Fold this sequence. Notes:
Elements: H1 2-45, E1 51-62, E2 67-69, E3 80-83, E4 90-91, E5 96-100, H2 103-130, H3 133-165, H4 171-199, H5 203-229, E6 231-233, E7 238-243, E8 257-260, E9 265-272, E10 284-289, E11 295-309, E12 324-332, H6 337-340, E13 347-355, E14 364-365, H7 367-370
Parallel strand pairs: 1-14
Antiparallel strand pairs: 1-9, 1-13, 2-8, 3-5, 4-7, 5-6, 7-8, 9-12, 10-11, 10-13, 11-12
Helix pairs in contact: 2-5, 3-4
Amino acid sequence: MADRWGRRASLIVSSVLLVSTCGFAARFHLARGAKEETSATENELVIPSEIEAIAALGRIEPASRIRRIVPPGESRTGTIAKMHVSAGDWVAKEQILAELDNHERLAADIAVSQSLVQVAESKLNQILAGIHPLRIDAKRVEIETVSSQLKMLELDLRRAQKLVSSSAMSAQMFEETKWKVENATLVQERLRKELSEIEDVREVDIQLARAELAKAKAELQKSIVRCKLSEVRSPIDGQILRIHAREGEAVGDLGLLEMANVNQMQAVAEVFEADASRVSIGMRAHMNVVSSGLKFGGTVVELGKLVGRQVVLSGDPVSDVDARVIEVRINVDSESVDVLSHLSNARVEVVFQAAASPAGDAPTGHSEALE
């Protein structure tokens, strides 16, 4: 019995010693492995990198941006009556692109308003002409002339009365002389009345005529503005890229057409916000059109002021679609503008060259797009 308990005690002690030895060995190897990993990491961090590339995805876009043109004001959803342009046409600023279906009626309103302005101007001129000094003087001269003639006729009438009483003049000649005096008297009274009306033109009549003229001119201006709202004009010099509504169709959510000035093209790179501080105006960039492999260069001209969500996505299904980016605009070199003018919205890969950071971090950005 004692011998059995002795063998059991020896077996238990041996097992405890074996477990302790294995645990110590395991801790030793783990600690050694961690130390080697830390040493390797430290050795990697101190390796400097002379030049680091900042990679990004982006798109091709005209420097003027693509403009989606819609009718102005109340005519935003009107029906197109006449189109003046086609896709591919070059247009100048303020050139008429299209006319809406209410254009002819509003143009007729302009003609009516112009006639009302002419009527108001004539009325005012008539009132002002009534108090013109030369007209008053002419009327006074006319009155004096008639008065002199009347005096002569009155003298003739007195002589005729004496001759008729002595039967030296016939009654008919006397009546004719009398009629001349009466007629001259009526003319004199009429001229004096006209002179009085000319001199008595009231200031309130002038003010009223001027107010009517101002109102007519305001109505004319309103008609012109309304008519312009029935015309769609180009906001810039540029090329028509796409037409969304044609004659007889209503303008929808897509607007009338899209246009841009493609004489200056840009690449819009979406740079991760962590890399934005390393990109500066004047920095050179190298770009590649993803679909065709076309390569070109450019210079950074504008840094975005807002951090937004990434729009241009890579083909990697595990990439971060919610990445926060800043738009960087790059002027394309002039020798590549003609080719890129037909590739608006094409996806491009962009590489900026920047000095290494002090920590020597590995290149960041859309590196998967450049592999």
